[in-house]
Amino acid sequence: MLTTHMNYKTDKSFAVEMDSKDPISKYRERFYIPKQKNGEDCIYFCGHSLGLQPKSVRSYIEQILKDWGTLGVEGWFHVKNPWMIYDQILIEQTAKLVGAKPIEVVVMNSLTVNLHLMMVPFYKPTPSRNKILIEYHAFSSDQYAVKSQIQFHGFEPKMSLIEIHPREGEDIIRTEDIESLIEKEGDSIALIMLGGVNYYTGQAFDMERITGIGHSKGCLVGFDLAHAAGNILLKLHDWDIDFAVWCSYKYLNSGPGSIAGCFIHEKHSNNSELPRFTGWWGHNKETRFLMGPNFEPIEGAEGWQLSTPPILQMAALRASMEIFDEVGMERLKAKSDLLTGYLEFLIDEIKSESISIITPWDIKRRGCQLSIRIQGNGKVLHNKLTSQGVICDWREPDVIRVAPVPLYNTFMDVYKFSEILKANIE
Fold first, then answer.
1. Which domain holds residue 357?
2. H or E segment to which residue 189 belongs
3. Is the pTM value of this prediction over 0.70?
4. Are residues 140 and 277 in the same domain?
5. Of all helices (H) and strands (E), which one includes residue 399?
6. What is the pLDDT of residue 5?
7. For residue 264, what is the domain's CATH number?
8. Below-50 pLDDT ranges, the chain
9. What is the CA angle 316-320-326, rounded to 5?
């Protein structure tokens, strides 16, 4: 049985032993692992960008294609998993994944679309309270979205957008600095909108603490969980977060550009004063097909749906979510802490001044991603890693991001990566 307290060792036998004790190692066999030209498995450390394909995806999608081909429009009603209620299959699993009640979650659209839809009810600027707080170096799409919303409401981003920076010489934003800024500027902040895990540094923010201080100042609070969902333990309901959005093609392994998710806290379910953009799939299910002119929202997050759901995308997500449901986020996070800690240990053992880890060392403040800062020509090093069977990614100006995903990566993957990295450090 794996334990969260571990004295790591540098020899290969340690990785072999850890893999032999790993209670969820069997799940690797349920994913396709990209191959090198020599036929060996790649070291795939890019789940933070695109998760691997579950082998069951094909059968789920082929069933939809078969139903469509044989029954046509009747597939909405007269198949084993009718398309009319296909989105319902994912509700319970999604709620468990993010620590929510079923009424609080929905699978729909794409991440940035959902972010814009959530800023309709949750960014309501006034002349005295119109600012949005985001983290420095937030993902670009979040920056574009919040700036465009500020402009849409007639304000200027240079006045209404606040970016919280790390202290000079540091990479991580301290929670106490976020609290101090909210305490100081909170009366003018309409919305706090941070990434649950920052895409660049891998820092996981203290969402519960930030939400509490935000609410105490009258701010609404939302999170982009693109790099958090399926990566860290989430308790969105208990943390009293107003809303959250996430994609499903990273840690949730649903395929490139696949359908996204959304959380809206239960306390907002029956607030008729919240504005929203509406569409027919968010309408009362009992009267949806009466095609009446007046919108009646479904109670909860489902009432924010707009369009007919993309069933093929949902089928791919369903294949992955069933694996998550089997394993459980607690077991995944326990292995993730060990696996990422092992990677951190081996990188530190290289003892090179040309590399450093900018991701927090505290396992409560990170998931499985480590961001490695490279002094000098980091792109050259990244290219060398790629040529030797390592799939990770490069982010300007100086970071290689690697993520040993607990569902399908092994301790031996981590060991081999460290040996390749060490051999190529100049």
1. 12-30+328-424
2. strand 189-195
3. yes
4. yes
5. strand 399-402
6. 53
7. 3.40.640.10
8. 1-4
9. 150
